[in-house]
Amino acid sequence: MALDDPDGGPILVLAPKPLLQQWQDELMELLLLPSARWDGRAWVDENDLEYPSEGMKSLGRCPRRIGLVSQGLVVRGLSEAINQLLNRRYTCVIVDEAHRARRRKLPRVDAGADEIDERAAPNKLMAFLRQIGPRTKSMLLATATPVQLHPVEAWDLLHILSHGNDGVLGGWTHTSPWFRPSHCLAIAIGDAAVPTRDVRDGWQYVRDPLPSRFEDTAFDRIRRSLDASDTRWQFNPESLEKLSLAIRRVQLQNRLLPHYGDNFNPLLRCIVRRTRAYLEATINPATGAYLLPKVTVKLFGEEDQGALVLGGYLREAYQEAEAFSLLLQQRIRGAGFFKTLLLRRMGSSMEAGRRTVSRLLGEEPDTPDDEDDDDADEETPAQVGRPPQGSSDFRNFTDAEMTSLRRCLDLLRQ
Predict the structure, then answer these.
(1) Residues 354-370 pLDDT 10s
(2) pTM greater than 0.85 (yes/no)
Protein backbone atom coordinates (compact mmCIF):
# COMPACT_ATOMS: atom_id res chain seq x y z
CA MET A 1 0.00 0.00 0.00
CA ALA A 2 2.80 2.42 0.88
CA LEU A 3 4.65 1.66 -2.34
CA ASP A 4 1.50 2.31 -4.38
CA ASP A 5 1.19 5.84 -2.98
CA PRO A 6 0.93 8.17 -6.02
CA ASP A 7 3.04 10.81 -4.28
CA GLY A 8 5.88 8.34 -3.94
CA GLY A 9 6.95 9.60 -0.53
CA PRO A 10 9.73 8.03 1.56
CA ILE A 11 9.18 5.08 3.90
CA LEU A 12 10.98 5.11 7.24
CA VAL A 13 11.64 1.91 9.19
CA LEU A 14 12.72 2.36 12.81
CA ALA A 15 14.11 -0.85 14.29
CA PRO A 16 16.63 -1.95 16.94
CA LYS A 17 20.15 -1.71 15.53
CA PRO A 18 20.78 -5.51 15.53
CA LEU A 19 17.75 -6.00 13.24
CA LEU A 20 18.59 -3.47 10.50
CA GLN A 21 20.66 -5.90 8.43
CA GLN A 22 17.93 -8.55 8.68
CA TRP A 23 15.32 -6.02 7.55
CA GLN A 24 17.43 -5.06 4.56
CA ASP A 25 18.19 -8.65 3.56
CA GLU A 26 14.58 -9.83 3.80
CA LEU A 27 13.15 -6.81 1.97
CA MET A 28 15.39 -7.72 -0.96
CA GLU A 29 15.20 -11.51 -0.78
CA LEU A 30 11.47 -11.85 -0.11
CA LEU A 31 10.00 -8.73 -1.75
CA LEU A 32 12.71 -7.57 -4.18
CA LEU A 33 12.62 -4.15 -2.53
CA PRO A 34 15.84 -2.14 -2.45
CA SER A 35 16.56 -0.17 0.70
CA ALA A 36 19.31 1.69 2.49
CA ARG A 37 20.29 1.43 6.15
CA TRP A 38 21.99 4.13 8.21
CA ASP A 39 25.08 2.64 9.86
CA GLY A 40 25.70 5.64 12.12
CA ARG A 41 27.95 7.44 9.63
CA ALA A 42 26.52 6.90 6.15
CA TRP A 43 23.82 5.17 4.10
CA VAL A 44 24.55 1.61 2.95
CA ASP A 45 22.34 0.13 0.20
CA GLU A 46 21.19 -3.45 -0.42
CA ASN A 47 24.46 -4.18 -2.29
CA ASP A 48 26.55 -3.06 0.72
CA LEU A 49 27.59 0.03 -1.20
CA GLU A 50 28.32 2.91 1.17
CA TYR A 51 27.31 6.36 -0.08
CA PRO A 52 29.38 9.53 0.40
CA SER A 53 28.31 11.23 3.59
CA GLU A 54 28.49 14.58 5.33
CA GLY A 55 27.80 13.02 8.68
CA MET A 56 24.42 13.48 10.30
CA LYS A 57 23.40 15.99 7.60
CA SER A 58 23.15 13.07 5.17
CA LEU A 59 20.58 11.26 7.32
CA GLY A 60 17.82 13.25 5.62
CA ARG A 61 19.07 12.29 2.12
CA CYS A 62 18.37 8.56 1.87
CA PRO A 63 19.42 7.14 -1.55
CA ARG A 64 16.52 4.67 -1.50
CA ARG A 65 12.82 5.18 -0.96
CA ILE A 66 12.93 2.82 2.03
CA GLY A 67 15.29 3.97 4.77
CA LEU A 68 16.22 1.76 7.75
CA VAL A 69 17.27 3.67 10.86
CA SER A 70 18.25 2.49 14.34
CA GLN A 71 15.95 3.46 17.19
CA GLY A 72 19.13 4.24 19.12
CA LEU A 73 19.41 7.61 17.33
CA VAL A 74 16.13 8.60 18.96
CA VAL A 75 16.70 6.88 22.28
CA ARG A 76 20.06 8.59 22.77
CA GLY A 77 18.39 11.93 22.13
CA LEU A 78 20.67 13.01 19.28
CA SER A 79 18.99 16.31 18.40
CA GLU A 80 20.54 16.67 14.94
CA ALA A 81 19.43 13.17 13.95
CA ILE A 82 15.92 13.72 15.33
CA ASN A 83 15.59 17.03 13.48
CA GLN A 84 16.73 15.42 10.22
CA LEU A 85 14.06 12.73 10.56
CA LEU A 86 11.32 15.20 11.54
CA ASN A 87 12.09 17.57 8.68
CA ARG A 88 10.67 15.14 6.10
CA ARG A 89 7.14 13.98 5.33
CA TYR A 90 6.58 10.26 4.87
CA THR A 91 4.22 7.92 3.11
CA CYS A 92 4.65 5.39 5.91
CA VAL A 93 6.58 4.99 9.16
CA ILE A 94 7.12 1.42 10.38
CA VAL A 95 8.32 0.77 13.92
CA ASP A 96 9.65 -2.69 14.77
CA GLU A 97 9.66 -3.82 18.42
CA ALA A 98 7.22 -0.98 19.04
CA HIS A 99 6.65 -1.98 22.69
CA ARG A 100 9.91 -0.13 23.39
CA ALA A 101 7.89 3.08 23.02
CA ARG A 102 6.33 3.22 26.47
CA ARG A 103 5.47 5.40 29.42
CA ARG A 104 8.09 5.79 32.13
CA LYS A 105 5.78 4.90 35.01
CA LEU A 106 3.23 2.11 34.63
CA PRO A 107 0.12 2.01 36.83
CA ARG A 108 -0.10 -0.68 39.47
CA VAL A 109 -1.72 -3.89 38.28
CA ASP A 110 -4.74 -3.24 40.51
CA ALA A 111 -4.75 0.54 39.94
CA GLY A 112 -8.02 2.47 39.82
CA ALA A 113 -9.30 4.57 36.93
CA ASP A 114 -7.71 7.80 38.18
CA GLU A 115 -4.22 6.30 38.22
CA ILE A 116 -4.63 4.69 34.80
CA ASP A 117 -5.94 7.95 33.33
CA GLU A 118 -2.99 10.00 34.58
CA ARG A 119 -1.16 11.68 31.74
CA ALA A 120 1.68 9.39 30.72
CA ALA A 121 5.26 10.62 30.84
CA PRO A 122 6.65 9.16 27.59
CA ASN A 123 10.12 7.78 27.10
CA LYS A 124 12.16 9.26 24.26
CA LEU A 125 10.96 6.82 21.61
CA MET A 126 7.29 7.35 22.46
CA ALA A 127 7.73 11.13 22.46
CA PHE A 128 9.42 11.00 19.04
CA LEU A 129 6.69 8.83 17.51
CA ARG A 130 4.06 11.28 18.74
CA GLN A 131 5.98 14.02 16.94
CA ILE A 132 6.44 12.16 13.68
CA GLY A 133 2.85 10.87 13.56
CA PRO A 134 1.39 14.04 11.94
CA ARG A 135 4.21 13.92 9.36
CA THR A 136 3.28 10.55 7.85
CA LYS A 137 0.26 9.32 5.90
CA SER A 138 0.29 6.02 7.77
CA MET A 139 2.10 4.35 10.65
CA LEU A 140 2.56 0.69 11.49
CA LEU A 141 3.65 -0.37 14.97
CA ALA A 142 4.91 -3.95 14.97
CA THR A 143 5.34 -5.92 18.18
CA ALA A 144 4.73 -9.42 19.47
CA THR A 145 4.16 -8.08 22.99
CA PRO A 146 1.87 -5.02 22.97
CA VAL A 147 1.12 -5.75 26.64
CA GLN A 148 3.98 -6.69 28.94
CA LEU A 149 2.89 -5.66 32.44
CA HIS A 150 -0.34 -3.63 32.12
CA PRO A 151 -3.11 -3.39 29.47
CA VAL A 152 -2.64 0.38 29.29
CA GLU A 153 0.50 -0.33 27.24
CA ALA A 154 -1.73 -1.39 24.32
CA TRP A 155 -3.77 1.81 24.68
CA ASP A 156 -0.54 3.81 24.69
CA LEU A 157 0.35 2.36 21.28
CA LEU A 158 -3.06 3.40 19.96
CA HIS A 159 -2.48 6.86 21.41
CA ILE A 160 0.74 7.08 19.38
CA LEU A 161 -1.19 6.10 16.24
CA SER A 162 -3.82 8.76 16.99
CA HIS A 163 -1.31 11.56 16.44
CA GLY A 164 -2.12 12.66 12.93
CA ASN A 165 -4.92 10.10 12.55
CA ASP A 166 -8.36 11.04 13.91
CA GLY A 167 -9.73 7.60 12.99
CA VAL A 168 -8.02 5.79 15.88
CA LEU A 169 -9.33 7.25 19.15
CA GLY A 170 -11.14 10.34 17.91
CA GLY A 171 -10.66 13.88 16.69
CA TRP A 172 -8.26 16.64 17.70
CA THR A 173 -10.51 17.93 20.50
CA HIS A 174 -9.82 14.72 22.46
CA THR A 175 -13.39 14.73 23.76
CA SER A 176 -14.13 11.18 22.64
CA PRO A 177 -14.73 8.70 25.50
CA TRP A 178 -12.12 6.45 23.87
CA PHE A 179 -9.42 8.92 24.95
CA ARG A 180 -9.96 7.77 28.55
CA PRO A 181 -7.68 4.72 28.74
CA SER A 182 -9.37 3.17 31.79
CA HIS A 183 -12.82 3.36 30.18
CA CYS A 184 -11.59 2.21 26.77
CA LEU A 185 -9.88 -0.82 28.32
CA ALA A 186 -12.88 -1.60 30.54
CA ILE A 187 -15.12 -1.77 27.46
CA ALA A 188 -12.59 -3.86 25.55
CA ILE A 189 -12.39 -6.53 28.26
CA GLY A 190 -16.14 -6.50 28.96
CA ASP A 191 -16.12 -4.75 32.35
CA ALA A 192 -18.11 -1.82 30.91
CA ALA A 193 -20.44 -1.35 27.96
CA VAL A 194 -21.48 1.32 25.49
CA PRO A 195 -24.82 2.84 26.61
CA THR A 196 -27.82 1.51 24.69
CA ARG A 197 -30.91 2.79 26.57
CA ASP A 198 -30.57 6.40 25.37
CA VAL A 199 -29.38 6.58 21.76
CA ARG A 200 -27.86 10.03 22.42
CA ASP A 201 -25.50 8.57 25.00
CA GLY A 202 -24.49 5.72 22.71
CA TRP A 203 -23.96 8.16 19.83
CA GLN A 204 -21.05 9.74 21.79
CA TYR A 205 -19.06 6.52 21.26
CA VAL A 206 -19.98 6.10 17.60
CA ARG A 207 -19.61 9.65 16.27
CA ASP A 208 -16.00 10.17 17.35
CA PRO A 209 -14.47 8.43 15.56
CA LEU A 210 -17.19 7.26 13.17
CA PRO A 211 -15.82 4.08 11.51
CA SER A 212 -15.56 4.00 7.73
CA ARG A 213 -18.41 2.81 5.53
CA PHE A 214 -16.45 -0.37 4.73
CA GLU A 215 -16.50 -1.61 8.34
CA ASP A 216 -20.26 -2.25 8.38
CA THR A 217 -23.25 -1.48 6.18
CA ALA A 218 -24.77 0.49 9.07
CA PHE A 219 -21.86 2.94 8.91
CA ASP A 220 -22.36 3.24 5.17
CA ARG A 221 -25.99 4.27 5.70
CA ILE A 222 -25.08 6.67 8.50
CA ARG A 223 -22.33 8.34 6.46
CA ARG A 224 -24.60 8.71 3.43
CA SER A 225 -27.23 10.33 5.63
CA LEU A 226 -24.59 12.76 6.95
CA ASP A 227 -23.15 13.27 3.44
CA ALA A 228 -19.72 12.50 4.90
CA SER A 229 -16.66 11.05 3.20
CA ASP A 230 -14.42 8.45 4.80
CA THR A 231 -11.77 11.10 5.39
CA ARG A 232 -13.91 12.74 8.08
CA TRP A 233 -13.97 11.01 11.46
CA GLN A 234 -15.32 13.42 14.05
CA PHE A 235 -18.93 14.63 14.21
CA ASN A 236 -20.63 16.83 16.80
CA PRO A 237 -23.41 15.53 19.08
CA GLU A 238 -26.07 17.45 17.11
CA SER A 239 -25.29 15.43 13.99
CA LEU A 240 -27.57 12.72 15.41
CA GLU A 241 -30.54 14.89 14.47
CA LYS A 242 -29.56 14.60 10.80
CA LEU A 243 -30.24 10.87 10.88
CA SER A 244 -33.73 9.70 10.07
CA LEU A 245 -35.75 8.06 12.83
CA ALA A 246 -35.49 4.73 10.99
CA ILE A 247 -31.68 4.84 10.84
CA ARG A 248 -31.45 5.90 14.48
CA ARG A 249 -33.61 3.02 15.64
CA VAL A 250 -32.76 0.24 13.20
CA GLN A 251 -29.10 0.86 12.33
CA LEU A 252 -27.85 2.64 15.43
CA GLN A 253 -29.90 1.61 18.47
CA ASN A 254 -30.83 -1.94 17.44
CA ARG A 255 -27.91 -2.99 15.20
CA LEU A 256 -24.74 -1.19 16.33
CA LEU A 257 -25.04 -0.14 19.96
CA PRO A 258 -25.85 -3.50 21.66
CA HIS A 259 -22.48 -4.98 20.64
CA TYR A 260 -20.51 -1.86 19.78
CA GLY A 261 -17.92 -2.39 22.50
CA ASP A 262 -17.40 -5.99 21.41
CA ASN A 263 -17.07 -5.27 17.71
CA PHE A 264 -15.81 -1.71 17.21
CA ASN A 265 -13.74 -0.62 20.20
CA PRO A 266 -10.43 0.96 19.05
CA LEU A 267 -8.28 -1.95 20.22
CA LEU A 268 -10.17 -4.33 17.92
CA ARG A 269 -10.34 -1.86 15.03
CA CYS A 270 -6.66 -0.90 15.07
CA ILE A 271 -4.75 -3.95 16.32
CA VAL A 272 -4.14 -6.63 13.69
CA ARG A 273 -3.23 -9.96 15.25
CA ARG A 274 -1.35 -12.43 13.07
CA THR A 275 0.08 -15.64 14.50
CA ARG A 276 2.51 -17.90 12.69
CA ALA A 277 -0.11 -20.68 12.75
CA TYR A 278 -2.61 -18.38 10.99
CA LEU A 279 -0.11 -17.30 8.34
CA GLU A 280 1.00 -20.87 7.66
CA ALA A 281 -2.59 -22.12 7.27
CA THR A 282 -4.13 -19.26 5.26
CA ILE A 283 -4.07 -19.03 1.47
CA ASN A 284 -3.08 -15.75 -0.14
CA PRO A 285 -5.81 -15.19 -2.79
CA ALA A 286 -3.39 -13.19 -4.94
CA THR A 287 -0.86 -16.02 -5.27
CA GLY A 288 -2.75 -19.19 -4.34
CA ALA A 289 0.06 -20.05 -1.91
CA TYR A 290 0.17 -19.89 1.86
CA LEU A 291 0.85 -16.45 3.30
CA LEU A 292 3.90 -17.90 5.01
CA PRO A 293 5.61 -21.11 3.87
CA LYS A 294 5.66 -23.58 6.70
CA VAL A 295 9.08 -24.37 8.11
CA THR A 296 9.13 -27.72 9.88
CA VAL A 297 11.63 -27.89 12.70
CA LYS A 298 12.33 -30.87 14.90
CA LEU A 299 13.14 -29.58 18.37
CA PHE A 300 15.26 -31.54 20.79
CA GLY A 301 15.09 -31.03 24.52
CA GLU A 302 11.42 -30.03 24.66
CA GLU A 303 10.60 -32.92 26.98
CA ASP A 304 11.93 -33.23 30.52
CA GLN A 305 14.14 -36.17 29.65
CA GLY A 306 15.87 -34.19 26.90
CA ALA A 307 16.41 -30.99 28.84
CA LEU A 308 19.83 -29.75 29.92
CA VAL A 309 20.22 -29.92 33.67
CA LEU A 310 21.54 -26.83 35.40
CA GLY A 311 24.18 -27.62 37.91
CA GLY A 312 25.84 -25.97 40.86
CA TYR A 313 25.49 -22.23 41.29
CA LEU A 314 23.48 -21.84 38.07
CA ARG A 315 20.73 -24.05 39.48
CA GLU A 316 20.86 -22.13 42.75
CA ALA A 317 20.56 -18.80 40.89
CA TYR A 318 17.49 -20.03 39.00
CA GLN A 319 15.92 -21.28 42.23
CA GLU A 320 16.63 -17.94 43.88
CA ALA A 321 14.89 -16.17 40.99
CA GLU A 322 11.88 -18.41 41.58
CA ALA A 323 11.99 -17.56 45.31
CA PHE A 324 12.08 -13.83 44.50
CA SER A 325 9.08 -14.25 42.20
CA LEU A 326 7.12 -16.00 44.96
CA LEU A 327 7.86 -13.10 47.32
CA LEU A 328 6.64 -10.66 44.68
CA GLN A 329 3.45 -12.66 44.09
CA GLN A 330 2.58 -12.42 47.78
CA ARG A 331 2.54 -8.63 47.48
CA ILE A 332 1.38 -7.88 43.93
CA ARG A 333 -1.52 -9.45 42.09
CA GLY A 334 -0.52 -10.41 38.57
CA ALA A 335 3.18 -10.86 39.37
CA GLY A 336 3.06 -14.32 37.82
CA PHE A 337 3.53 -12.70 34.42
CA PHE A 338 6.63 -10.93 35.76
CA LYS A 339 7.95 -14.28 36.97
CA THR A 340 7.56 -15.74 33.48
CA LEU A 341 9.50 -12.85 31.93
CA LEU A 342 12.33 -13.05 34.48
CA LEU A 343 12.76 -16.81 34.25
CA ARG A 344 12.58 -16.67 30.46
CA ARG A 345 15.43 -14.14 30.43
CA MET A 346 17.48 -16.41 32.68
CA GLY A 347 16.63 -19.40 30.52
CA SER A 348 17.80 -17.67 27.33
CA SER A 349 21.29 -17.17 28.77
CA MET A 350 22.82 -16.61 32.18
CA GLU A 351 24.33 -13.35 30.90
CA ALA A 352 20.86 -12.09 29.97
CA GLY A 353 19.66 -13.12 33.43
CA ARG A 354 22.56 -11.34 35.12
CA ARG A 355 21.90 -8.11 33.22
CA THR A 356 18.17 -8.28 34.02
CA VAL A 357 18.70 -8.80 37.75
CA SER A 358 21.38 -6.10 37.79
CA ARG A 359 18.95 -3.62 36.24
CA LEU A 360 16.21 -4.58 38.67
CA LEU A 361 18.60 -3.72 41.49
CA GLY A 362 19.48 -0.41 39.83
CA GLU A 363 23.17 -1.19 39.66
CA GLU A 364 25.42 0.73 37.29
CA PRO A 365 25.00 -0.94 33.87
CA ASP A 366 27.85 -2.61 32.06
CA THR A 367 29.21 -1.22 28.79
CA PRO A 368 26.12 -1.33 26.56
CA ASP A 369 25.96 -3.59 23.54
CA ASP A 370 24.07 -2.75 20.35
CA GLU A 371 20.72 -3.82 21.77
CA ASP A 372 21.23 -1.95 25.04
CA ASP A 373 22.18 1.13 23.04
CA ASP A 374 18.73 1.16 21.47
CA ASP A 375 16.90 0.58 24.73
CA ALA A 376 18.69 2.78 27.29
CA ASP A 377 16.23 5.64 27.43
CA GLU A 378 16.20 6.82 31.02
CA GLU A 379 16.89 10.50 31.60
CA THR A 380 19.02 9.86 34.71
CA PRO A 381 21.33 6.94 35.47
CA ALA A 382 20.35 4.43 38.10
CA GLN A 383 22.03 4.70 41.48
CA VAL A 384 24.18 1.80 42.58
CA GLY A 385 22.30 -0.48 44.93
CA ARG A 386 18.95 1.30 44.49
CA PRO A 387 16.17 0.44 42.05
CA PRO A 388 14.87 3.16 39.69
CA GLN A 389 12.46 5.37 41.57
CA GLY A 390 8.79 5.94 40.78
CA SER A 391 8.46 3.38 38.01
CA SER A 392 5.95 0.92 39.51
CA ASP A 393 5.42 -1.63 42.27
CA PHE A 394 7.50 -3.98 40.15
CA ARG A 395 10.52 -1.79 40.94
CA ASN A 396 9.87 -0.58 44.49
CA PHE A 397 10.93 -3.85 46.11
CA THR A 398 10.76 -4.77 49.79
CA ASP A 399 13.90 -5.53 51.80
CA ALA A 400 13.26 -9.27 51.51
CA GLU A 401 12.84 -9.01 47.73
CA MET A 402 16.02 -6.94 47.41
CA THR A 403 17.95 -9.49 49.47
CA SER A 404 16.72 -12.32 47.27
CA LEU A 405 17.71 -10.44 44.10
CA ARG A 406 21.19 -9.74 45.47
CA ARG A 407 21.69 -13.44 46.30
CA CYS A 408 20.62 -14.30 42.76
CA LEU A 409 23.02 -11.75 41.25
CA ASP A 410 25.93 -12.95 43.40
CA LEU A 411 25.35 -16.51 42.16
CA LEU A 412 25.19 -15.40 38.53
CA ARG A 413 28.50 -13.54 38.89
CA GLN A 414 30.40 -16.66 40.03
Answers:
(1) 888 888 887 744 334 44
(2) no
